[in-house]
Protein 1
Amino acid sequence: MSDTEKPDLRVVPADETGQSAGDEADAGPDDEARLSPKEIRFCDALSAGETSCQASKLAGITDRTGRRWRQRPEIQAAVRARLNDSLGAARAILACGAARACSALVTMADGSEPAESARVSACRAVTEGAVKLCEVAELEERLAALEAQLTNDGGKPRWT
C-alpha cells in the first residue's frame, strides 16, 4: 500500500447467496454455509457496530428474532470471525504506519522538523496501538498453542 493510498475499511455486505463480495474462497464449509442471507446481513451489521435492534432492522427481522439469534453459537462465531478480521486489518494498518510514525518522531526529536503537539500525539498513538495489537495477537497465538497442548485427540484435558 502506498503512502497516499488509504485502506478500505468498509464492511462488505453479503449477496443473496450468503457470500461476501470478493470473499468466496474465505468462507469455510461449516461457517457461512449454514447461515441464511438474513443471518449474514445481521452478523455484518453487528460486526460493523450496529446495535441488535438496528442490525435486526437491517436484516429485515424483528428485534425479538435478533435477540434470539444473538444467543446462537453459529451467529456468535460469525460475528467473532468478522471482528477478528477487522482487528487483523487494523493491526496491519497500524504496523505499516508505525514505521512512518517512528520516523516522524525521530525527525521531530532531533529538530529536523518542528514538534507539533498534535502530530507527536498522533505518532505516539499509532506506535503504541501497533505494539499493543501485536502483543495481543502474540498472546492469542500462545494461548491457542497451550490449549492445543493441554487437550488430547478426544478434546478432554490430559489430567482428567
Protein 2
Amino acid sequence: MQRDDGETVGYLDPVTSNYDVVVPRNILGQQIGEPSDYAVAEALVEDRGIGELMNLWILDGQEAVVGDELTILEVSPDGIVLANALRVKALESTQRIHIPWPDVSQRLTSVKRP
C-alpha cells in the first residue's frame, strides 16, 4: 500500500475474497491490528508509515540488552537484513542477519525504552 507521496507503508492482507475484511500489516509484514474493514485497516497502515524502521529491534524474543539491539539495513522481497545497531553506527564490520520477508511470524520485536 502506498501513500499519496508514493511511500510504501505496508499492505492489507485479505481475510475475505472481496476485501471486506482485511488484516493490516506494516512494511515488515507484521500484523499491526485486528482484522477489520478495509477503510479502518487502511487508515491504520497509513498512520504507521515507515518511521518504525528506524527503531531498535530484537530477534526471536531475546532480551533487549543495550549494545545487542539490531537495526534494519534493508527490507525487500529478498528478505530483511539486520545488524548490530551500535556497530553499524560506529561503521564497524558486523555480522548481517537475514530473515524472510514478510515477517508474518513476527520474529522481530521493536525495543521499547522508558
Protein 3
Amino acid sequence: MQRLRQEVAKFGTVGIIAYIVDVGIFNILRAETISPIASKPITAKIISSIIATLVAYFGNRYWAFRHRDVGGHRQSLSLFFLFNVVGMGIAAVCLGFSHYVLNLTSATADNISANLIGTGLATIFRFWAYRRYIFTDATRPATA
C-alpha cells in the first residue's frame, strides 16, 4: 500500500507538470493574436497532448515508475504512446462534443471540456494502463 501511495504521488507530480505543459501550449495555440490554428481547437489539443506526452513519458519512466520492470525501452515507449493516444482521444471527444455539439466555443468552455473533464477521465485510464501494461511490478509474476 505504501508503494502504491508513492507511485500515485509521483505519477501525480509528473502529471501536474505535463498538465501545465499541455494547458499552456493548448492556450497558446488557441490564442487568436499569435496562432495560425486558433480556430482549430482539436488540432491545438492534439499538438499540446503530444508534447505533454513526451514530458510525461520521461518523468514516469525515469522517476515515478523507475523501480518497475519496463522490458524493452522501444516496446514500453510504443505502449505508452498508444495509451496516450487513447487518453488524447478521450480529451478530444469531450472537447469535440462541447465545442461542436453543444456549441460552447469560448476559450473557457474549451478549457473546461478538454483540460478538466477530458484530461481527468484520461488520467484515470492512463494510470491504470501504465501500471497494468507498461510499468509492471517486477516482484510479481507476470499474468497470462
Protein 4
Amino acid sequence: MILSMTGYGKATVTFADKKIHAEIRTLNSKTLDLLLRVPHLYHEREMEMRRLLTPLLVRGKAEVSVWTEDAPAKTAAHLNAAAIAAYSAQLQDVSTQCGLPYPTNPWNIIIRLPDTFTAQAEEELSAEEWDAVCQALRQAAARLEEFRRQEGEALQHKFEEKLSNIASLMQAIEPYEQQRTEKIRQRLEERLAEIKGVDYDRGRLEQELIFYIEKLDISEEKQRLANHLAYFRTTMAEGEGQGKKLGFIAQEMGREINTTGSKSNQAEMQNLVVRMKDELEQIKEQVLNVL
C-alpha cells in the first residue's frame, strides 16, 4: 500500500508536572523540508530531533511543533518576601522622618517597585524529560503515518480507476485501427482513379500500402503501454517510498500515448487518445502526493 505525503499527527505525553505536546503536519515536496518550532528549553536538542524525525517522515514539507503546559502552581509568580518587607520598613521610616501619613494601602505602592517578584530559576533539560519529548515525537509520527496510510489507500483506489480507464480506452481504439486499413486502400485507389490515362502496378500499390500501414501501426505502443500499466500496479503493491518511481512510469505511459496520437489518422482514434491523456494527467497530478 502506498503512502500519501499529506498527513497530520498529534500526541501528548505527561512528564512530572507538565504536559508535552507534539504536532506534525506534512504536505508534498520533492525532498524532506523540515521546519521545527520548539520551546527555548529544547533548542539545544534540535539536531537530535531532526535525526529522530528524518527516517520517520522520509519526504515532504513537514511542520513540527512542540510545546508544553506546566502545572498552574509552577507557572504562578512568586512574591519576594524579603524585598516586600524591606520596602514596607522604608515606607514607615520615610513616613516618620518626613511627618507624612503612612499610606492606607501600601500594597498599591510596593507592588509596583522593582524585585517584588522573584524570577523563576531557569530550567535544565533532564534526560528523563528528553526521553518524554522523544516519546511524544514518535507517537505523533506514528499517528501521522496512519493518516498517510489512509490517504494513500484513497490515492491507490484513484490510480486503479484511472489505469483501468486508460486500458479500456486503448482497447476501444482497436475497432477503428482495423477499419482504417481498408479505408486507406480505398482512399488511395480513389485518388489514383482521378488521374486519367495513368496505369499503375497493383503489386507495387500493395507494397506501398503495406509500408504506409506499418508506419501507422500502433501494436508496439499498445503493448508497451500495457506493460507500463501493469508495472505501475506492481510498484504500488511494493508499498511506501515509491512516489518518484511511479512518476517516472507515468512519464513513460505519456510517451506511448503521445506516439499513439501521432499515428492516429482518424478523428475517433484521436478523441480516444485525448481522453487517455486526460486520465494520465490526473494520475500525474496525484503522483506528486505519493511518498
